Amino acid sequence: MSHRAAINALRDYLATVIIGQQHLIERLLIALLADGHLLVEGAPGLAKTKAIKMLAHGLEANFHRIQFTPDLLPADVTGTDIYRPENGTFQFQQGPIFHNLVLADEINRAPAKVQSALLEAMAERQVSVGKQTYSLPELFLVMATQNPIEQEGTYPLPEAQLDRFLLHVLIDYPDAAAERQILQLVRGEAKSHTPAPPSEPVSQATIFAVRQEILDLHMADSVIEYIVQLIQASRHPGQYDQQLAGWIEYGASPRGTIALDRCARTYAWLQGKDFVSPDDVQAVVHDVLRHRLLLSFEAEAEGIRPQQVIDTLISVVPIA
């Protein structure tokens, strides 16, 4: 089976078990193939946990869920040294972060030390305990979730930590047709009629090979310039639009430029294309920049959302 056929089979499998969340499925695959992490925000019960769990079923990978709570400690995530009295030494006990796919459920319910421990592991791909450093698996993806409804007792992620996420995905309730399909699926699962995963789980070697194919995808200089100008417009909005200048306090960092390039390439590859177009950039730009723009007090007072700001960015930046 070719690499593209393997990924398409995985996508088709996810679509049969995750109903009404096509956007989430696509963004999960983008994060996986672009070697990044994603933050998913949505109400409870929208299959966020199930999505990454089913992704692990279709991959040659292991999965662990961490439920973030206010009393969680950094060692509960990373692991810690355990004293062994039989030989008088300390031995490192790996924490749940040492898995290929990790779900950080309700990340904003954990205090800052725990959040920083997780985000350091995400950025550095390693964990330091005492004088020792331990490498995380080569295939490593963190999906963190936030519940936007109930904010009491939460610790909002600072902007600098949000920047570590490749994508920030918003998901909403399914429509009526999808809701009916969900009922049928759940009834079938209760009768042990769970859809079977792909006959051959996608190997890690396939994932790494696809990542190389994505990096080799052709991107014209004009598309590169379009990406750069979108980021520049977020940093110097006054040069493009005065209304935009009143909305944006701080623009995207160079991580935003890199993320937009990687995600546009991956999106184009998933569409079966062998080149990247401005349409591919526009398809992912909202999820890439949503958490990287710091809006002004005036914009927040007017009820302006990042979605509207990014729409305006797209409208004022010309395609080269």
UniProtKB/TrEMBL annotation:
So where does this one cross the membrane? none
The ATPase AAA-3 domain is annotated at: 37-167
Q: Which domain of life is it from?
A: Bacteria
Record key words, sorted:
ATP-binding, Nucleotide-binding
GO-annotated molecular function: ATP binding; ATP hydrolysis activity
InterPro entries for this protein: ATPase_AAA-3, CbbQ/NirQ/NorQ/GpvN, ChlI/MoxR_AAA_lid, P-loop_NTPase
Cross-referenced PANTHER family: MAGNESIUM-CHELATASE SUBUNIT CHLD, MOXR FAMILY PROTEIN
Give the family, as the similarity comment puts it.
Answer: Belongs to the MoxR family.
Q: What is this protein called?
A: MoxR family ATPase
Source organism of the structure: Zooshikella ganghwensis
